[in-house]
Specification:
Elements (H helix, E strand, L loop, with lengths): L1 H19 L4 H16 L17 H13 L3 H7 L17 H11 L4 H9 L11 H18 L2 E2 H15 L5 E4 L1 H4 L4 E2 L2 E6 L3 H9 L4 E7 L3 E6 L5 E6 L5 H9 L2 H13 L3 E3 L2 E4 L2 E4 L3 H7 L15 H7 L13 E5 L10 H10 L4 E7 L11 H17 L4 E9 L10 H6 L2 E5 L9 H8 L6 E2 L17 H11 L2 E5 L9 H9 L4 E4 L11 H10 L23
Helix pairs in contact: 1-2, 1-4, 11-13, 18-19
């Protein structure tokens, strides 16, 4: 939603500015929490009372209403008055925190990315207090990763933007789809491309450009148009194709490039030519209206877009041995859910009702353990109180099973954050690394998986799509050990993780590993991220039998049941 994102961005900038200025932490966290709630809220904020949203207090609600009425927030203007343009952007760089940024700004006059690159090139960082060669090296690496990441956007952002256009276009088009890497559900996206077909091309084009979130028309022709959006500030391109070419265009513009090259080779071997307009024998178009016709003409079965990366899918399609990929409707429950007992924004009951509304048979409440202080980790006493509340909520809500889980920190020596006697009382345990990323974590993870009460390994590589490379880890060694021990590997569906990714999923499956898709939800809106996890699993060629939360709860062969 446009307004939701706009206000969330402003709250994030206020929090960043306050943090760089050294303001008190509870104010900073209040803005960050409100931003997170708004960004993941599924309804348009302008259509409801802000106070009705869980996690939005009176003060934040007043600022939201101020923005909706005036287009401004006075507090934002106040805190940004003495902040140079471009300074806060640097907080997106790995190893540049608020204190480091404050030091760079005051001592070296760093105001933007260009300034930071200049002082790095001149070797000036290592002379600052607390800055050594290693820190300078890490910041340099962070700058490189940040600049590379800016060229692409997370899948969740691209999908959100594409869906805002596809919804109105579906009313005037016969068919409309996102194309390119979005349709293939790749974790990061370069361009947002949309394909449509229908009788009234002019209506389709005009519907596209007249959306309220279009801030600029970049180019406009008879069948192609490019715009820039007011929310997320992204370029979106629409191409309207003839019905006779719809299937061929969908194949061509979905890609991948390597997949299409292989298809052209198949066509050439048959004396045919394939392009975005159809499959041709000489000058005669013999296929093109549907994707299935295009593939069939080449002697290949249709395959899901997520598989189209030239990783052997065409050969399997020729042999008729394509896997039947997992679907969203196969999911029976979500085991990675946080409540307001730790760092979630919603109550256990609210999360349970939302999961029940999705048709789930079970939900696992997996709050953080005690060592995750920044995430409100639960002491043994608070864990006991939370479990008692789960029992009370279960008594009130029928038709869905509420499971007692925990996301338990793996400590520096591989031990878990709770004693075995406590872990044994839970329905399942998700083990996770949340600190000490620079030292190799492979041994820690393997030691943790030796514990018989560990059922799932959370976000195994620790990467964040927007800025963090991940743990220092031998991921193949860890995945193989998980398969040996019977520990499930999580496919974390959170919009900024998608961890494991498709490449690691395919490798882990060769070891015999099994998986669980978890949304890592901290509010009800994040439950929808299951779509991202499903897309990632499909890119890894997983079938429903490979993913254990497609099973009924009593049928999941967890380690503790063996």
């Amino acid at each position: 939603m446009g307004k939701n994102t706009e206000i969330a961005d402003i709250f994030e900038k206020i929090a960043d500015a306050l943090e760089v200025k050294g303001d008190i932490i509870f104010k900073i966290n209040a803005y960050r929490k409100a931003a997170k709630v708004l960004r993941e809220y599924s309804e348009d904020i302008s259509a409801i009372e802000p106070t009705e949203i869980a996690g939005i207090g009176k003060g934040m609600a007043e600022k939201i209403e101020e923005y909706l009425k005036t287009g401004k927030i006075k507090k934002y203007e106040e805190v940004m008055a003495d902040i140079p343009e471009g300074l806060l952007e640097l907080l997106n760089i790995s190893n540049v925190g608020p204190k480091t940024l404050q030091l760079l700004h005051k001592e070296l006059g760093v105001n933007n990315l260009a300034d930071l690159e200049k002082v790095l090139k001149e070797g000036k960082l290592s002379g600052l207090p607390g800055m050594g060669e290693k820190k300078e090296e890490n910041i340099s690496k962070g700058v490189f990763l940040y600049k590379a990441g800016k060229a692409r956007m997370p899948l969740a952002v691209a999908l959100r933007v594409a869906k805002e256009f596809i919804k109105p276009l579906s009313g005037v088009s016969e068919s409309v789809y996102p194309a390119g890497s979005i349709r293939r559900m790749k974790e990061t996206i370069g361009d947002i491309d949309i394909l449509a077909t229908g009788d009234n091309v002019k209506d389709i084009i005009e519907t596209f450009v007249r959306q309220p979130y279009v801030k600029e028309i970049l180019a406009k022709g008879d069948t192609k148009v490019s715009v820039r959006t007011s929310f997320e500030d992204r370029q979106v391109d629409l191409r309207v194709v003839e019905k006779e070419s719809w299937g061929a265009a969908l194949v061509y513009f979905t890609g991948s490039k390597a997949h299409n090259i292989k298809l052209r080779g198949l066509a050439k071997d048959k004396g045919l030519k394939i392009n975005e307009y159809g499959v041709f024998k000489g000058t005669e178009r013999i296929a093109g209206r549907t994707e299935k016709d295009v593939y069939k003409t080449l002697g290949v079965r249709w395959m899901p877009p997520e598989m189209r990366e030239d990783r052997g899918e065409i050969e399997l399609a020729i042999e008729g041995k394509l896997p039947i990929l997992i679907e969203q409707e196969n999911i029976r429950g979500d085991l990675h859910i946080h409540s307001n007992y730790s760092d979630g924004t919603e109550s256990i009951e609210t999360m349970v009702l939302a999961a029940k509304g999705l048709g789930y048979e079970y939900i696992g409440i997996s709050d953080h353990s005690k060592s995750s202080r920044i995430a409100g980790g639960l002491s043994e006493e608070r864990l006991k109180r939370r479990n008692e509340e789960i029992d009370r909520v279960q008594d009130r809500i029928k038709g869905i099973k509420i499971l007692k889980g925990m996301e338990v920190d793996i400590l520096s020596d591989g031990r878990l954050d709770y004693s075995d006697s406590i872990l044994e009382e839970l329905d399942f345990v998700i083990a996770a690394v949340h600190q000490g990323f620079t030292k190799n974590v492979s041994k820690r993870m393997k030691t943790a998986m030796d514990n018989p009460w560990v059922d799932i390994l959370a976000h195994p590589t620790g990467w964040l799509l927007s800025w963090r490379e991940g743990y220092n880890i031998n991921i193949e060694e860890v995945m193989e050990y998980a398969a040996e021990k019977g520990v499930l590997l999580e496919i974390n569906a959170s919009y900024n993780r998608l961890d494991l990714n498709d490449v690691n999923i395919m490798k882990a499956k060769t070891y015999g590993a099994k998986f669980m898709i978890g949304t890592d939800s901290h509010n009800t809106g994040m439950l929808e991220d299951m779509e991202l996890g499903i897309g990632t699993a499909r890119r890894g060629w997983l079938e429903s039998k490979d993913v254990f939360n497609t099973y009924r709860w009593d049928d999941i062969p967890l380690r503790r049941r063996r």
